[in-house]
Amino acid sequence: MTMSGLISNRNFGSFVGSGNVYRSGRDISVQRGGVSICGVSVAQDPFSRWQHKMHLPLEERIRKPMQKSHYKGEHFSLVSRQSSPCLNFRLQASGINGCSFVSSAPYRSNNVEQREEHGLGLSRRKHAQPAVAKANKFRVNYKSEEYNISETKIDPLQSTEGTGEAILLEGNLQQVSPWWQQFPKRWVIVLLCFSAFLLCNMDRVNMSIAILPMSQEYNWNSATVGLIQSSFFWGYLLTQIVGGIWADKIGGKLVLGFGVIWWSIATVLTPIAAKLGLPFLLIMRAFMGIGEGVAMPAMNNILSKWIPVSERSRSLALVYSGMYLGSVTGLAFSPVLIQKFGWPSVFYSFGSLGSIWFVLWLSKAYSSPKEDPDLGVEEKKLILGGNVSKEPVTVIPWKLILSKAPVWALIISHFCHNWGTFILLTWMPTYYNQVLKFNLTESGLFCVLPWLTMAIFANIGGWIADTLVSKGLSITSVRKIMQSVGFLGPAFFLTQLSHVRTPAMAVLCMACSQGSDAFSQSGLYSNHQDIGPRYAGVLLGLSNTAGVLAGVFGTAATGYILQRGSWDDVFKVAVVLYIIGTLVWNIFSTGEKVLD
């Protein structure tokens, strides 16, 4: 006889004959179409008979003759091992107490074969059809063979093993877990990365609000304020490529965890550094940039290993939307905290959130699926796609990487994209104030709108891109379509700003420009994992270095243009770069793997 599950004479659940559950005693016989408990048939009205018989002494119940099924010559009996050693079940699944089984299929057999087992005479009927057993929270599949126990004396007080445990031979045990345990592990990684990027921009933008009361307290002029704001990029530029190398060599978990805890500590120490003096504050802001500089390459590395290509766009879009929502959260809560508790409270409260994230990250995250011991077989198969996950790289093939045209397409396109994006995000409050004549409060309020728009449209673009891939469109075509929208959309809406006559239409054009810009998350920002998944961290470090330089130079160039020209000239330069980026991307980019 073979089963799957665990049956114990001490903690046995219940046998079910016709879809009903009955509490069982220590000794049970199962017949076709029903259950025989201690020799009493309970196929028709089992519960009342069982209650009656269970009051009898154990020895008397054991000696009762076993009831036969009304199907001629066919019956099945199951007797606890504490009652008899004649049935020997071997365990494959353990730790299951109180199971409930259903005997739902009749047994049809022939070709009776005699054999001796444990010194007892057993008449075994072969070719028995399987019966299905089900249990509360467990699904058990087994085949049962019928035994006719005849001329067998049973000592109910002896057990060959002494444990009284009935053990099963073989089977397939499937445990039904709660929904939160069935949540895909790869999306747990995505949500943790989303949270990290939420904290990243919360800690970055809080200085733009806190710098106002800080400059009043320490008597900083505009030049000093600009120096403090730019000091962040000193460290940020330093660790873009280095962070990618670290992530590709030692894994994204360690590098991203290091980055978050590093910039969180730097954020908490910012008020102390400001009180010590300006040089200490500049160093602390640079330290914060070092921590945030490794975040994007490390995230790109870990998602390249965890996310299948069919879900790549939407996962990256969700993570990057965390940055946008982090800006919204930081801009919304910083003024409230400053007003109630003073400007240092912003840095203490925001920075302390990183420690909570770090604890969750250490307990839940792994650099790759093969390192996660709790990852299900089916999900691992989906992630790996039937391929063996390769080891982290030991040497970065710089010559090979820089010789590929798609890599340069990424670098150039990232530069063109960030030039326009940083201009809009950095100079937008000034544009609202000088051109649209909004006051500072209204300017700050409308500055939140582009971040919200980008968060929404980034996720919409991600779902569209993954849907196109699932419909059979090539990855190359999808990346080119999405990035073309990310370039040409902002270019179109920026050209319309010179024609609008109302502030409402101007704000709408700016919002639409940023919304279409967010489609880039499913274009160039997803392409690093397409062309070189093993070097995704290094590739993002390279392209994002160009993107950060575009932000630094573009912001400075905009101020120079405004001294000698107008806002139309600023937008024209951005539109030209958007068009250049579109051409380079559509000519040289690809969605196929070019680095292995």
TrEMBL record:
<feature type="transmembrane region" description="Helical">
    <location>
        <begin position="254"/>
        <end position="274"/>
    </location>
</feature>
<keyword id="KW-0812">Transmembrane</keyword>
<dbReference type="Pfam" id="PF07690">
    <property type="entry name" value="MFS_1"/>
</dbReference>
<keyword id="KW-1133">Transmembrane helix</keyword>
<feature type="transmembrane region" description="Helical">
    <location>
        <begin position="345"/>
        <end position="362"/>
    </location>
</feature>
<feature type="transmembrane region" description="Helical">
    <location>
        <begin position="407"/>
        <end position="428"/>
    </location>
</feature>
<feature type="transmembrane region" description="Helical">
    <location>
        <begin position="448"/>
        <end position="469"/>
    </location>
</feature>
<feature type="transmembrane region" description="Helical">
    <location>
        <begin position="227"/>
        <end position="247"/>
    </location>
</feature>
<feature type="transmembrane region" description="Helical">
    <location>
        <begin position="569"/>
        <end position="588"/>
    </location>
</feature>
<protein>
    <recommendedName>
        <fullName>Major facilitator superfamily (MFS) profile domain-containing protein</fullName>
    </recommendedName>
</protein>
<keyword id="KW-0934">Plastid</keyword>
<feature type="transmembrane region" description="Helical">
    <location>
        <begin position="280"/>
        <end position="303"/>
    </location>
</feature>
<dbReference type="InterPro" id="IPR050382">
    <property type="entry name" value="MFS_Na/Anion_cotransporter"/>
</dbReference>
<dbReference type="GO" id="GO:0005315">
    <property type="term" value="F:phosphate transmembrane transporter activity"/>
</dbReference>
<keyword id="KW-0150">Chloroplast</keyword>
<dbReference type="InterPro" id="IPR020846">
    <property type="entry name" value="MFS_dom"/>
</dbReference>
<keyword id="KW-0472">Membrane</keyword>
<feature type="transmembrane region" description="Helical">
    <location>
        <begin position="535"/>
        <end position="562"/>
    </location>
</feature>
<feature type="domain" description="Major facilitator superfamily (MFS) profile">
    <location>
        <begin position="189"/>
        <end position="593"/>
    </location>
</feature>
<dbReference type="InterPro" id="IPR044777">
    <property type="entry name" value="SLC17A9-like"/>
</dbReference>
<dbReference type="GO" id="GO:0009507">
    <property type="term" value="C:chloroplast"/>
</dbReference>
<dbReference type="GO" id="GO:0042170">
    <property type="term" value="C:plastid membrane"/>
</dbReference>
<feature type="transmembrane region" description="Helical">
    <location>
        <begin position="315"/>
        <end position="333"/>
    </location>
</feature>
<keyword id="KW-0809">Transit peptide</keyword>
<dbReference type="InterPro" id="IPR036259">
    <property type="entry name" value="MFS_trans_sf"/>
</dbReference>
<comment type="similarity">
    <text>Belongs to the major facilitator superfamily. Sodium/anion cotransporter (TC 2.A.1.14) family.</text>
</comment>
<dbReference type="InterPro" id="IPR011701">
    <property type="entry name" value="MFS"/>
</dbReference>
<feature type="transmembrane region" description="Helical">
    <location>
        <begin position="187"/>
        <end position="207"/>
    </location>
</feature>
